[in-house]
Design brief:
There is one protein chain. It contains twelve helices and ten strands. The protein is α/β, with parallel strands linked by helices and 274 residues long. It has an eight-stranded parallel beta barrel, surrounded by seven helices. The protein has a two-stranded antiparallel ribbon with strand order 2-3. Strand 6, helix 7 and strand 7 form a beta-alpha-beta unit. Helix 2 crosses helix 6, helix 4 packs across helix 5 and helix 10 runs parallel beside helix 12. Bound molecules: indole-3-glycerol phosphate.
Length: 274
């Protein structure tokens, strides 16, 4: 069993427990009653006319306590405080891991962050059931994560449609040329390239530069994982990233606010000018 399969098995088990507590119909009602979702595509600089885009590098800052590859990263007793720091540093979106077993996250973290910031919030989980998409909306998320490697074409397209019907956006995560083609065919507008190999969990930032040219001009392109310094941020920006998704480097830094601001400045300076 791959790491991804293993994580998803745990996610399904935890989901079963929540569903027994709150049936889908109830969560649907809560999702429809929630305050409208914020437009993350726009917040990340997306524009239907690519010529209208600016050249600011956006940062998606992640609340991440631990990971399968690195183990414990940071305690984060108050996710709301960290998220407010990210926002003050200029982050465009906050990503909140809600997977419990491997990443130490929860829907409580999502609630706390949602209440603390005005910018869009991404519910970062392994989405394998429509229940999780309604649940994300019910908890005020504006974006969900859809990992192409975990979904067949039909499921990916239907989850994307449901996400859009609920007024949200999806960050559609890819790792390979083939997954990028599938993301585009499904209608993804925010496409992430995760440079972490799902089988070995190794990070290879060079993957981004190889895959970025395959992405459409009207999509928002997100480089995910492996940002340790402004040098890497500049590399991703120069290679075509519109945004970067950063976890570890921010949660471990004593000054997350200043680090977000530094990453934005370094990335924006390196982005190709029009
Ligand atoms: O901590 P890093 O190396 O900055 O990585 C952040 C992010 O890319 C990573 O957390 C991530 C990318 N895709 C995921 C899917 C599930 C869980 C986590 C992830």
């Amino acid at each position: 069993m791959s790491v991804l399969d293993d994580i998803i098995a745990g996610v399904r088990e935890d989901l079963g427990a929540r569903r027994a507590h709150a049936p889908l119909e109830q969560v649907k009602e809560q999702a429809l009653a929630a305050a409208p979702a914020r437009d993350a595509y726009q917040a990340l600089g997306g524009h239907a006319d690519p010529a209208q885009r600016d050249t600011t590098l956006r940062v998606i800052s992640e609340v991440k306590r631990k990971s399968p590859s690195k183990g414990a990263l940071a305690d984060i007793p108050e996710p709301a405080v960290l998220a407010a720091e990210y926002q003050a540093g200029g982050a465009s979106v906050i990503s909140v891991l809600t997977e419990a077993r491997r990443f130490g996250g929860s829907l409580d973290d999502l609630d706390a962050v949602r209440a603390a910031v005005q910018i869009p919030v991404l519910r970062k989980d392994f989405t394998v059931d429509e229940y999780q998409i309604y649940e994300a909306r019910a908890h005020g998320a504006d974006l969900v994560l859809l990992i192409v490697a975990a979904l067949d074409d039909q499921t990916l397209a239907s989850f994307l449609e449901l996400t859009h019907d609920l007024g949200m956006n999806a960050l559609v995560e890819t790792h390979t040329e083939e997954e990028i083609a599938r993301a585009i065919a499904a209608g993804a507008k925010i496409i992430g390239v995760n440079v972490r190999n799902l089988k070995t969990l190794d990070v290879d930032p060079a993957t981004f530069g190889k895959l970025a040219p395959l992405l459409p001009a009207d999509a928002v392109i997100v480089a995910e994982s492996g940002v340790e310094s402004t040098v890497q941020v500049a590399d991703y920006a120069a290679a075509g990233a519109d945004a970067i998704l950063v976890g570890e480097a921010l949660v471990k830094h004593a000054d997350p606010r200043g680090t977000v601001a530094e990453f934005i400045a370094a990335g924006t300076a390196a982005k190709p000018q029009r």
